[in-house]
Structures are given as C-alpha cells and as structure tokens.
Design goal:
With 296 residues, the chain is an alpha+beta fold. It has two domains: 139 residues, no CATH class; 139 residues, OB fold (Dihydrolipoamide Acetyltransferase, E2P), CATH 2.40.50.140. Strands 1, 2, 3, 4, 5, 6 and 7 form a seven-stranded antiparallel beta sheet that branches. A hairpin with a 2-residue loop joins β2 and β3. The longest helix is centred in the middle third of the chain and has 14 residues. The chain is globular and about 60 Å long.
Length: 296
C-alpha cells in the first residue's frame, strides 16, 4: 500500500522535474515576486483591484484566486518548456517574461498553477518537499520550515473592505516591551452568502463592537479601542528578516473572542499583558534556519 506522500509524489505534474538538480534537490532557476505575478495576471484578465480583493476573499488565498482567474487549462506543459524559459530568462524583456509566464499558467490546471507560483516565488518549505517529493527528504532540514501555532493577540487596527462596513481586515498585535507589535491579519464580516467569514457565533456582535469603537484614521486604516484579545490559529509561520515582527504567517484564523473583565478595562493593563502572547515566545518557538539538530 502506498503512503499518502508516495501517492502525491507519483501524481505530481511532470514539469516539476525542471525544479530538481541532478542530485534530486529542489532548486530555483529563476525567481518572480508574488506582486509581479499578480500584476501580470490582473493585466491579462482585466480584473480591477477591488474586484480581485473580492475574488481573493472568496477563494481563501492569493494563489488560489490568481490560479482560478486564468480559466480553463489548455494543457501541454513539460519540464523542457520550463527549462527553455529558465535558460532565456536573463536575456528576455519584461514583456517576454510576462508572456512566457502567462502561457504556462494558461496551459496548467488550477492546482498546478498554485504550485508553480509557489516555486517561482522561491517557497522552499518542508511541506512542499514532503507532499510532492520535490527533493530529498534529508535536505528538508536545510530549508526554511514553517509551522502552525496558536496565540492570543490583541486587536489594534481595522481596515474597512466595503463601503457598508460589513467586512474588515483586522490587524492584531503581540506583546513586546510594554507595548504591542502589529504582526497578524485576518478577515472578518459577512461573506456575501448569508454567512460569516470566520464562522464565529459572536461574529455579528464583534462587527457591532468594531463599529462602536473606531478611533483615529490612518489613511484607509482605523484604530480601535485597544482592549479585546483573541485566540488565533496561525498557519505557515516562519522566521522572516523582512518583517518587523521577525516572522510571517501565511494564513490567520480567529478561533475565539476572549471576552472577559480582564481585557475590557483599559489598554496595557496587567491583565492584558498576561493574556497576550509574547512576540519573543513566537520567535523562540519557530524552527531556526540551518538548524539540523546536529552538534560539533
């Protein structure tokens, strides 16, 4: 009987071999930023920025939304087609690079598009290797590893997504040095189909609370009364020098609104500080780069 991972490796697209060297290790012959890929796809499809936000919210992730926008697959992608582009990438103009990339996506199925965009953006985590067999399992420890964690974070800011204020992007903070550092974001509000984005029983009440506690405007962002603590599930978390907090999370889900007397008094009370997860705890918890567990 084949294991789940073995089945995934056998069923992976044949073009994935273009990302393996002679030793079977995962390599990235070129790298394309997520924003560049997003810009190319939106330009090709003619989707406006506000409509794409709605598409992304419905799909649940950026790559999923971009993959779906490219429509039905035309087929015909092989490792040779990718290698052809890799070899000529440095000599191509931006227009030629865009056309090659969009040709690839048009030929692929949705799941293949998601995988390709992850690879082109340089996403070399252990999950990708384990699921699709992209490289030797022994090399996993040498890559940036992601993990999932649950934290208590305090709500700091909100950004209205629609004019009716039925949806918000929430920004949460973790405790650091007598203050809070904003570092986690999640969507909240109506899903447009009679339900709620987070699926919380008290999500309508939370939406009302936000409306009643809006504070200073900072561009499109609004501060709120800093008092409410939430239990969050964070997936795809890894250390990152590019982020102020020192780490990033691919997705954040609100598990629970911790409504009680301790976190409803005033900002930065002793109760709040003890409830909110420390930023240093998250950094210390995450796997360190190049940490093989070996000594000497």
């Amino acid at each position: 009987m084949k294991s789940m991972n073995q089945s995934d490796r056998l069923n992976r697209p044949v073009w994935c071999d273009a990302f393996l060297d002679e030793g079977g290790n995962l390599i990235f012959p070129i790298k394309v930023s997520v924003n560049t890929m997003k810009g190319w796809i939106l330009e090709r499809t003619g989707i406006s920025a506000w409509l794409f936000i709605e598409c992304q919210r419905f799909a649940g992730s950026l790559n999923e939304a971009l993959a779906l926008l490219m429509g039905t697959s035309t087929g015909g992608i092989t490792a040779m087609v990718l290698q052809h582009g890799f070899e000529r990438w440095d000599t191509w103009t931006d227009s030629e690079r865009k056309e090659w990339f969009l040709f690839l996506l048009s030929a692929m199925e949705v799941e293949e598009r998601r995988l390709l965009m992850s690879l082109l953006s340089g996403r070399s985590n252990a999950t990708l290797i384990s699921k699709y067999g992209l490289g030797k399992i022994s090399s996993v420890r040498d890559l940036k590893e992601t993990t999932s964690i649950t934290v208590n974070a305090i709500l700091l800011y909100v950004r209205p997504i629609d004019r009716m204020n039925t949806q918000y992007e929430l920004t949460f903070g973790l405790y650091k040095e007598e203050g809070y550092t904003s570092c986690l974001r999640a969507m909240l509000g109506e899903d447009g189909m009679g339900g709620w984005l987070q699926g919380l029983d008290d999500e309508p009440v939370l939406l009302d609370w936000i409306t009643d506690n809006l504070g200073e405007r900072i561009g499109p962002i609004r501060s709120v009364t800093v008092s409410e603590v939430f239990e969050l599930q964070c997936d795809g978390v890894e250390l990152s020098k590019r982020h102020k907090a020192g780490f990033k999370a691919e997705s954040v889900r609100v598990l629970k609104w911790l409504r009680n007397a301790e976190n409803a008094i005033a900002p930065l009370t002793a109760g709040n500080q003890s409830m909110v997860t420390s930023l240093e705890w998250v950094r210390d918890f995450l796997p360190k780069p190049q940490d093989s567990g070996q000594t000497g």
